[in-house]
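We store sequence with structure; for instance:
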Amino acid sequence: MRTGEMKINWVSRYMPLLNEISREYSKEKPLSGLTVGMSIHLEAKTAYLAITLSKLGAKVVVTGSNPLSTQDDVAEALAEKGIIVYAKRTHDENVYRANLVKVLDEKPDFIIDDGGDLTVISHLERTDVLENLKGVSEETTTGVKRLRALEKSGKLRVPIIAVNDSKMKFLFDNRYGTGQSTWDSIMRNTNLLVAGKRVVVAGYGWCGRGIALRASGLGAKVIVTEVDPVRAVEAIMDGFEVMPMREAVKNADFVITATGNTDVLNEEDILSLRDGVILANAGHFNVEIPVKVLEKIAVEKFEARPNVTGYVLKNGKTVFLLAEGRLVNLAAGDGHPVEIMDLSFALQIMAVLYLLKNHEKLEPKVYTLPPEIDEKVAKMKLAAMKVEIDKLTEHQRRYLESWQ
């Protein structure tokens, strides 16, 4: 058995929610005759999502959502299972973009997106696709932000489900998934100790919370940088130091960005970094750490280890950048833990089924999944873990609903 198939088989053991969805809907096949286009980081868990959608009757067309996050062995194994795959790990942005367009050429009825690239191209460049497109389910914070901007501009033409805004997504995927997978990638690629080190986490959204929490659990001293005063107060109350980036970076051993914004560090910040610092990005796009600035001010560039680039700066100090500044947990790792993505991908399928039933009456806006779907997925997860919880009695329910 080849490695790609082995990886898919492995994750299938630990994705009980997708397996339950397959059992529940495989006979009915609600997606028969429909095409689902996917642009999500193409690794084993995503492959299993595509296979599950296929079991529900869909024609599934898959590409990646980041040039370096596709695992070629998994893509090959998925294609052998009858899924249409247009994806390749590449440094060439043009190749990545061409594969996105190939998915749109299949005229999908629904899109499952991660970062919004597929949806934005369909609205701004390939508007012919909109004749068939019924709706989009978006996976991540950055994608939701982009699609809300598309809605605000008046250019949005189909309903969007912001899966990222579901509690069963951001409370677990963004926090625990990003926290574990970011540090898994950093540690396996550097082989360095975290305990006792100074870690700067830029951004204290749900992803930043998870990264800071895991760094603290590994024994690091954590400093948070923020632009949101409420989140800054929260970080302080959670036990972390908060200070401006220009102060935080001076003694940092690790700097990890998770803001969803651009140019989180500037040239002055980079020159202030201590010798040997590790830079990593956990945001969706490779814009948070200004790689072009690094390239400009470096007098030497070298490969220190696989996925680790060293830059000798003009002041003599060397800084190390992981995964070329791309999403470190996927460009240089396997992404979130399997059980976490089982939750997120269950929500993605529920979102597609919701759009299937409701797209004709939904306006072209960004929506959150109804809370009862969140609750259904939570109940499925508890059942998979063999955990029971209490239920309100009718007396208790009446009390909570009463104004007296």
In short: The chain has a mean pLDDT of 96. The CA atoms of residues 214 and 310 lie 25 Å apart.
